[in-house]
What we know:
Blueprint: E1 73-74, H1 81-89, E2 93-94, E3 136-139, H2 141-145, H3 155-167, E4 172-173, E5 176-177, H4 190-197, E6 207-208, H5 212-220, E7 226-231, H6 234-241, H7 245-261, E8 266-271, E9 275-276, E10 280-281, H8 284-296, E11 301-306, H9 313-325, E12 335-336, H10 344-359, E13 364-367, H11 387-397, H12 405-419, H13 426-432
Parallel strand pairs: 1-2, 3-4, 3-13, 5-6, 6-7, 7-8, 8-11, 11-12
Antiparallel strand pairs: 9-10
The site of 3-hydroxy-3-methylglutaryl-coenzyme A has 24 residues, from helix 5, helix 6 and strand 8.
Amino acid sequence: MSSLEEPLGFDKLPSMSTIDGIQRFSAGACRPRGEDMGMGTCWIEGRSCSTSNSCDEDYEEYTGEAFPWRRHVRDVSEGGAFNRRASSLSKNRMKCGHVCDSRYLPDLQYRSKCNGRGVRGITNKPFLKDIPKFVKMVEVGPRDGLQNEKNIVPTSVKVELIRRLVSSGLTVVEATSFVSPKWVPQLADAKDVMKAVHNMEDARLPVLTPNLKGFEAAVAAGAKEVAVFASASDSFSKSNINCSIEESLVRYRAVCAAAKELSVPVRGYVSCAVGCPVEGAIPPSKVAYVAKELYNMGCFEISLADTIGVGTPGNTLQSTLSLLRNKVCGLSGAKKKKVCGLSRKQSLLAFVLRFCFLLMGISTVDSSVAGLGGCPYAKGASGNVATEDVVYMLNGLGVKTNVDLAKLKLAGDFISDHLGRQSGSKTAIALGRVTADASKI
Length: 441
Ligand SMILES: CC(C)(COP(=O)([O-])OP(=O)([O-])OC[C@H]1O[C@@H](n2cnc3c(N)ncnc32)[C@H](O)[C@@H]1OP(=O)([O-])[O-])[C@@H](O)C(=O)NCCC(=O)NCCSC(=O)C[C@@](C)(O)CC(=O)[O-]
């Protein structure tokens, strides 16, 4: 049995109560209108929720949200038990007091004045009362979803996909990558894609940048947010970006420094956060090390990527808890790629994982429309959890995403039709067979 196959029971996990100094992270990029927009001092004022499945929250009721460059911990006095516990442990408590733009709400445990329309009251049950009331979805379809496609997708199709995803209510849509076209030919049109979408309102459109060259090209093309992607496995780092983990961190420090100069927020990925196709199981301490480095260099949010889809609730929680134990404050987990396509078992496991994250209060989820995806440099990375499936699950729990499932499904159908294959979303397939209004199921 390989190290990846060894079962890890919950008994082996450290209990939350034994973890000292948990600081609930507040990784969002809320900036104030009219204030200094330099890194570290700015907040964004919000807008009211206006998507078609809009809720009636009064955004003025949201409690604080930290800006990446100033690690304030929001005042969570109105939050659930987890928040209260975290709040008592946190060092830099500060009330935000600003109205936050929902596009910048990554991990929001907020006091909502939802009228409960469409919410089944499920989250009031004792077991579930601490799960977030709102989850920020990070859509990676146009980038991660398409990067592995062999046939070049026309720029106009990519742009239309992004437009449809944004109009479904998704407020963070990873648009493309400014990487070497020799390494990822599918995204060689990054500049053209960005030029077409960079002024799209209502959404943040981050792009991947592996080095300063990519960062400069991204900014020149109009990108307002970027992401750097390190790995917890040296082998994967070498095959993906042709350098060791340490070398990649040097590059990313340079990217973060340049981004700071221009007030461009940087998101950080940790690939192989559970396992690597070459190295097998990755020690959680290594994941925490890389995450902390990314956080310390200025990444406002850390996404733990289970690149090849070997996460179980046990090993994934162990990695996550290791971050908390190591006081990595920015943590946005929950990306789960499936190892072997779309089998029901894998789908179920992905949901269990997401559910565990929710229970920990983690409320940013990466996913890919129609389940598109795969990394050209990770053998076995054969797809992502479909955004439609995650939204459907969250709807069922009464957790808001502000995403219109029907419009999202149409976006998934659009790209699946173009690629000439069935959607990888079980929900989309099932909803395609019912005649009822999908958003009301
Ligand atoms: C990092 C490099 C560039 C190093 O690639 P390299 O070959 O080591 O780079 P180099 O510095 O030796 O330069 C070689 C050539 O690339 C050019 N170059 C150098 N940088 C750039 C750039 N930014 N944009 C465009 N061109 C670039 C550079 O100018 C030069 O051009 P030449 O002189 O030969 O004509 C390469 O390995 C690369 O592009 N890798 C990207 C691989 C990739 O995109 N993988 C998929 C995304 S990661 C992922 O999916 C995982 C994630 C994020 O989803 C999380 C998860 O699920 O795990």
